[in-house]
Amino acid sequence: MEFMSLDGNIQQISYAEVKALCFVSDTGSTDLFTDHSLFERRPKVPGLWTRFTLRDADRLDGILSHNLIEWPASGYLITPPRVGISRQRVFLPRAAVAATELRGVVGASAISVLTNAKAKTVVRTGQLSMFD
What we know:
This protein is mainly β. It is built from 1 helix and 8 strands, in the order E-E-E-E-E-E-E-E-H. The protein has one helix at 110-123; strands spanning 2-4, 10-12, 21-23, 47-54, 59-64, 75-78, 89-93, 97-106.
C-alpha cells in the first residue's frame, strides 16, 4: 500500500502492517475500535452482516456486499456501524483478520429477487389477490 503524508511524502507499507484503513470525507475522532464498533441492532443496510475479530482481539462489525466479486483479494471493504464523516468505509486487510463470523443476511441479492419474482408468477393459480 502507498500512503501520502500531509507534507507530500509517499510511504510504502505492506498489508501485514495495517490494521484498518478508513475512508473519510473529513478528519475527525479516531474512535473506530472504541465507540460503536458493533451493531446494537440488526442493520437495515442490505448486505452481509459480518463480525471481524482482528489479530489484536479487537472486534468490528460491518456490512459486506452481496456480490462476492466486489470483494478485493487483499481484504474486505465494509460499511461500519454508525457511519459518519470520520468513518464511511473501512478496508480490513486479510492479514489483519483472525476470524470472521456471518451474523446475518440483510436484504436480498438480485439473483434471489429474480428467482422469487419468477416463482410468484408461476404459482398464481387461484390464490386470492389480497394474499399476494
